[in-house]
Amino acid sequence: MNGIPWAALGLNIALSAAVLTLLMAATFAVALAKGGVHRVVDSAWGLGFAAVAVTGWIASGGRGDDGHRLLVALLTVVWGLRLAVHIARRGRGHGEDPRYARMLDAAPGSRALYALRKVYLLQGVLILLVSLPVQTALYAGAPPLPLTVAAVVLWTVGMFFEAVGDHQLARFRADPANRGRLMDRGLWSWTRHPNYFGDFAVWWGLFLLAVSGWQAALISVPAPLVMSALLIFGSGKALLERRMAGRPGWDAYAARTSGFFPRPPRRTG
Protein backbone atom coordinates (compact mmCIF):
# COMPACT_ATOMS: atom_id res chain seq x y z
CA MET A 1 0.00 0.00 0.00
CA ASN A 2 1.45 3.36 -0.97
CA GLY A 3 1.28 6.02 1.73
CA ILE A 4 -1.20 6.37 4.55
CA PRO A 5 -4.95 7.03 4.15
CA TRP A 6 -4.81 10.00 6.50
CA ALA A 7 -8.54 10.66 6.71
CA ALA A 8 -9.29 7.04 7.61
CA LEU A 9 -6.46 6.92 10.14
CA GLY A 10 -7.63 10.20 11.68
CA LEU A 11 -11.14 8.81 12.03
CA ASN A 12 -9.71 5.68 13.63
CA ILE A 13 -7.79 7.76 16.17
CA ALA A 14 -11.01 9.62 17.01
CA LEU A 15 -12.91 6.32 17.40
CA SER A 16 -10.14 4.95 19.61
CA ALA A 17 -10.26 8.08 21.76
CA ALA A 18 -14.01 7.61 22.22
CA VAL A 19 -13.59 3.94 23.13
CA LEU A 20 -10.85 4.77 25.63
CA THR A 21 -12.98 7.50 27.18
CA LEU A 22 -15.79 5.00 27.75
CA LEU A 23 -13.37 2.41 29.14
CA MET A 24 -11.78 4.85 31.57
CA ALA A 25 -15.20 6.17 32.66
CA ALA A 26 -16.37 2.61 33.35
CA THR A 27 -13.17 1.84 35.26
CA PHE A 28 -13.58 5.02 37.29
CA ALA A 29 -17.14 3.96 38.17
CA VAL A 30 -15.86 0.55 39.30
CA ALA A 31 -13.24 2.25 41.48
CA LEU A 32 -15.87 4.45 43.13
CA ALA A 33 -18.08 1.38 43.72
CA LYS A 34 -15.11 -0.29 45.43
CA GLY A 35 -14.80 2.60 47.87
CA GLY A 36 -12.39 4.76 45.89
CA VAL A 37 -9.68 2.13 45.34
CA HIS A 38 -8.15 3.41 42.14
CA ARG A 39 -5.61 0.65 41.59
CA VAL A 40 -8.19 -0.97 39.27
CA VAL A 41 -7.08 1.50 36.60
CA ASP A 42 -3.85 -0.47 36.17
CA SER A 43 -5.81 -3.38 34.69
CA ALA A 44 -7.48 -0.96 32.28
CA TRP A 45 -4.04 -0.13 30.84
CA GLY A 46 -3.76 -3.48 29.04
CA LEU A 47 -7.48 -3.57 28.26
CA GLY A 48 -7.19 -0.15 26.63
CA PHE A 49 -4.61 -1.33 24.11
CA ALA A 50 -6.66 -4.43 23.34
CA ALA A 51 -9.74 -2.22 22.80
CA VAL A 52 -7.83 0.09 20.46
CA ALA A 53 -6.55 -2.88 18.45
CA VAL A 54 -10.02 -4.39 18.07
CA THR A 55 -11.52 -1.00 17.18
CA GLY A 56 -8.88 -0.43 14.52
CA TRP A 57 -9.14 -3.94 13.12
CA ILE A 58 -12.90 -3.58 12.66
CA ALA A 59 -12.72 -0.02 11.30
CA SER A 60 -9.92 -0.84 8.83
CA GLY A 61 -11.74 -3.81 7.32
CA GLY A 62 -11.17 -4.16 3.58
CA ARG A 63 -7.98 -2.09 3.58
CA GLY A 64 -4.57 -3.50 2.78
CA ASP A 65 -3.32 -6.95 3.74
CA ASP A 66 -5.90 -8.81 5.84
CA GLY A 67 -3.24 -11.18 7.22
CA HIS A 68 -1.08 -8.28 8.37
CA ARG A 69 -4.03 -6.50 9.97
CA LEU A 70 -5.00 -9.66 11.84
CA LEU A 71 -1.42 -10.21 13.00
CA VAL A 72 -1.14 -6.66 14.38
CA ALA A 73 -4.49 -6.85 16.17
CA LEU A 74 -3.85 -10.34 17.56
CA LEU A 75 -0.39 -9.55 18.96
CA THR A 76 -1.70 -6.41 20.63
CA VAL A 77 -4.77 -8.11 22.12
CA VAL A 78 -2.74 -11.06 23.46
CA TRP A 79 -0.27 -8.70 25.12
CA GLY A 80 -2.97 -6.41 26.53
CA LEU A 81 -5.24 -9.13 27.91
CA ARG A 82 -2.38 -11.04 29.53
CA LEU A 83 -1.18 -7.89 31.25
CA ALA A 84 -4.68 -6.94 32.41
CA VAL A 85 -5.36 -10.39 33.88
CA HIS A 86 -1.96 -10.50 35.59
CA ILE A 87 -2.41 -7.08 37.21
CA ALA A 88 -5.96 -7.91 38.32
CA ARG A 89 -4.79 -11.14 39.97
CA ARG A 90 -1.83 -9.42 41.60
CA GLY A 91 -4.02 -6.71 43.12
CA ARG A 92 -6.82 -9.00 44.32
CA GLY A 93 -7.44 -8.57 48.04
CA HIS A 94 -5.13 -5.58 48.38
CA GLY A 95 -6.08 -2.02 49.21
CA GLU A 96 -5.05 1.12 47.37
CA ASP A 97 -1.76 1.22 45.49
CA PRO A 98 0.73 3.34 47.52
CA ARG A 99 1.46 5.46 44.43
CA TYR A 100 -2.15 6.55 44.12
CA ALA A 101 -2.58 6.90 47.88
CA ARG A 102 0.30 9.39 48.07
CA MET A 103 -0.95 11.30 45.04
CA LEU A 104 -4.52 11.56 46.26
CA ASP A 105 -3.53 12.45 49.82
CA ALA A 106 -2.07 15.65 48.34
CA ALA A 107 -5.04 16.29 46.04
CA PRO A 108 -6.52 19.79 46.11
CA GLY A 109 -10.29 19.56 46.39
CA SER A 110 -12.16 16.40 45.48
CA ARG A 111 -10.01 13.24 45.54
CA ALA A 112 -12.30 11.55 43.02
CA LEU A 113 -12.17 14.36 40.46
CA TYR A 114 -8.43 14.70 40.92
CA ALA A 115 -8.02 10.96 40.28
CA LEU A 116 -10.24 11.23 37.21
CA ARG A 117 -8.03 13.95 35.72
CA LYS A 118 -4.58 12.86 36.82
CA VAL A 119 -4.93 9.06 36.64
CA TYR A 120 -7.75 7.95 34.34
CA LEU A 121 -7.75 10.63 31.66
CA LEU A 122 -3.95 10.80 31.63
CA GLN A 123 -3.69 7.03 31.15
CA GLY A 124 -6.25 7.21 28.37
CA VAL A 125 -4.19 9.85 26.56
CA LEU A 126 -1.01 7.78 27.01
CA ILE A 127 -2.71 4.67 25.61
CA LEU A 128 -3.88 6.66 22.58
CA LEU A 129 -0.33 7.92 21.98
CA VAL A 130 1.51 4.66 22.62
CA SER A 131 -0.93 2.71 20.43
CA LEU A 132 -0.14 4.83 17.34
CA PRO A 133 2.04 2.06 15.78
CA VAL A 134 -0.87 -0.36 16.11
CA GLN A 135 -3.34 2.04 14.55
CA THR A 136 -0.91 3.03 11.79
CA ALA A 137 0.00 -0.59 11.00
CA LEU A 138 -3.69 -1.40 10.45
CA TYR A 139 -3.95 1.28 7.75
CA ALA A 140 -0.48 1.71 6.22
CA GLY A 141 0.00 -1.84 4.96
CA ALA A 142 2.60 -4.52 5.68
CA PRO A 143 6.34 -3.79 5.89
CA PRO A 144 8.82 -5.97 3.97
CA LEU A 145 8.76 -9.61 5.07
CA PRO A 146 12.18 -9.53 6.85
CA LEU A 147 10.96 -6.60 8.95
CA THR A 148 7.74 -8.47 9.79
CA VAL A 149 9.75 -11.52 10.87
CA ALA A 150 12.05 -9.35 13.01
CA ALA A 151 8.99 -7.68 14.58
CA VAL A 152 7.39 -11.00 15.51
CA VAL A 153 10.67 -12.33 16.94
CA LEU A 154 11.12 -9.17 19.03
CA TRP A 155 7.49 -9.34 20.24
CA THR A 156 7.94 -13.01 21.16
CA VAL A 157 11.12 -12.31 23.13
CA GLY A 158 9.32 -9.52 24.94
CA MET A 159 6.30 -11.65 25.79
CA PHE A 160 8.58 -14.42 27.06
CA PHE A 161 10.46 -12.11 29.41
CA GLU A 162 7.32 -10.36 30.58
CA ALA A 163 5.09 -13.39 31.13
CA VAL A 164 7.77 -15.73 32.50
CA GLY A 165 9.26 -12.99 34.69
CA ASP A 166 5.84 -12.17 36.18
CA HIS A 167 5.14 -15.88 36.77
CA GLN A 168 8.50 -16.46 38.45
CA LEU A 169 8.02 -13.45 40.73
CA ALA A 170 4.48 -14.52 41.68
CA ARG A 171 5.67 -18.01 42.63
CA PHE A 172 8.57 -16.56 44.62
CA ARG A 173 6.30 -14.25 46.59
CA ALA A 174 3.78 -17.03 47.24
CA ASP A 175 6.39 -19.00 49.21
CA PRO A 176 6.42 -17.86 52.87
CA ALA A 177 10.08 -18.87 53.11
CA ASN A 178 10.94 -16.00 50.76
CA ARG A 179 9.33 -13.28 52.88
CA GLY A 180 11.69 -10.30 53.06
CA ARG A 181 14.06 -11.73 50.45
CA LEU A 182 14.92 -10.29 47.04
CA MET A 183 13.93 -12.19 43.93
CA ASP A 184 17.21 -12.95 42.13
CA ARG A 185 16.45 -16.22 40.36
CA GLY A 186 15.51 -17.23 36.83
CA LEU A 187 15.11 -14.27 34.50
CA TRP A 188 15.53 -11.98 37.51
CA SER A 189 19.21 -12.99 37.62
CA TRP A 190 19.66 -11.71 34.06
CA THR A 191 17.88 -8.38 34.47
CA ARG A 192 16.42 -6.61 37.48
CA HIS A 193 13.29 -5.90 35.43
CA PRO A 194 12.40 -8.75 33.03
CA ASN A 195 8.78 -7.57 32.90
CA TYR A 196 9.72 -4.00 31.95
CA PHE A 197 12.28 -5.20 29.40
CA GLY A 198 9.53 -7.43 28.01
CA ASP A 199 7.21 -4.44 27.54
CA PHE A 200 10.06 -2.58 25.85
CA ALA A 201 10.67 -5.40 23.36
CA VAL A 202 6.95 -5.92 22.66
CA TRP A 203 6.40 -2.28 21.74
CA TRP A 204 9.47 -1.96 19.55
CA GLY A 205 8.25 -5.13 17.82
CA LEU A 206 4.81 -3.61 17.25
CA PHE A 207 6.50 -0.46 15.95
CA LEU A 208 8.36 -2.50 13.32
CA LEU A 209 5.02 -3.87 12.09
CA ALA A 210 4.02 -0.29 11.26
CA VAL A 211 7.15 0.56 9.25
CA SER A 212 5.78 0.14 5.74
CA GLY A 213 7.32 3.45 4.68
CA TRP A 214 8.92 6.60 6.02
CA GLN A 215 5.60 8.31 6.80
CA ALA A 216 4.37 5.37 8.86
CA ALA A 217 7.69 5.18 10.68
CA LEU A 218 7.67 8.90 11.43
CA ILE A 219 4.17 8.96 12.89
CA SER A 220 4.74 5.76 14.88
CA VAL A 221 8.21 6.18 16.40
CA PRO A 222 7.18 8.58 19.22
CA ALA A 223 5.14 5.73 20.73
CA PRO A 224 7.96 3.25 21.52
CA LEU A 225 10.16 6.18 22.56
CA VAL A 226 7.53 7.32 25.09
CA MET A 227 7.01 3.75 26.31
CA SER A 228 10.78 3.27 26.67
CA ALA A 229 11.09 6.51 28.64
CA LEU A 230 8.26 5.49 30.97
CA LEU A 231 9.71 2.02 31.53
CA ILE A 232 13.30 3.13 32.13
CA PHE A 233 13.10 6.66 33.53
CA GLY A 234 9.49 7.12 34.66
CA SER A 235 6.95 4.94 36.43
CA GLY A 236 8.83 1.69 35.75
CA LYS A 237 12.45 0.92 36.58
CA ALA A 238 13.42 4.27 38.13
CA LEU A 239 10.43 4.47 40.48
CA LEU A 240 10.71 0.84 41.60
CA GLU A 241 14.43 1.07 42.26
CA ARG A 242 14.00 4.17 44.39
CA ARG A 243 11.62 2.12 46.56
CA MET A 244 13.98 -0.89 46.62
CA ALA A 245 17.14 1.06 47.50
CA GLY A 246 18.29 0.32 51.03
CA ARG A 247 16.66 -3.10 51.28
CA PRO A 248 19.01 -5.82 52.58
CA GLY A 249 20.90 -7.39 49.70
CA TRP A 250 19.85 -4.80 47.12
CA ASP A 251 23.30 -3.31 46.52
CA ALA A 252 24.87 -6.71 45.91
CA TYR A 253 22.01 -7.74 43.63
CA ALA A 254 22.26 -4.50 41.65
CA ALA A 255 26.03 -4.92 41.31
CA ARG A 256 25.77 -8.36 39.67
CA THR A 257 22.53 -7.99 37.70
CA SER A 258 21.83 -5.87 34.63
CA GLY A 259 19.61 -2.89 35.26
CA PHE A 260 17.49 -3.45 32.16
CA PHE A 261 18.82 -5.28 29.10
CA PRO A 262 19.36 -8.98 29.88
CA ARG A 263 22.85 -10.43 30.27
CA PRO A 264 24.40 -13.17 32.40
CA PRO A 265 24.97 -12.05 36.01
CA ARG A 266 28.37 -10.67 36.86
CA ARG A 267 30.62 -12.51 39.27
CA THR A 268 31.18 -10.43 42.39
CA GLY A 269 33.43 -10.75 45.37
**Rounded radius of gyration (Å):** 20 Å
User: Which structural category fits the helices and strands?
Assistant: mainly alpha
* Distance linking N and C termini: 57 Å
Number of discrete helical segments:
12
Largest sheet: none
Order of helices and strands: HHHHHHHHHHHH
Percent range for helical residues? Answer: over 70%
Mean pLDDT: 94
Tell me how many strands there are.
0
Shape: globular
- Spans of 5+ residues with little confidence (pLDDT < 50)? none
Number of domains: 1
What fraction of residues sit in β-strands? Answer: under 5%
GO cellular component, one term: membrane
Keywords: Membrane, Transmembrane, Transmembrane helix
Pfam family, one: DUF1295
Transmembrane segments: 6-32, 44-62, 119-139, 145-164, 196-217, 223-240
Description:
The chain is mostly helical and 269 residues long. The protein has one domain. It contains 12 helices and no strands. Helix 2 crosses helix 5, helix 6 packs antiparallel against helix 9 and helix 8 packs antiparallel against helix 10. The N and C termini lie far apart (57 Å).
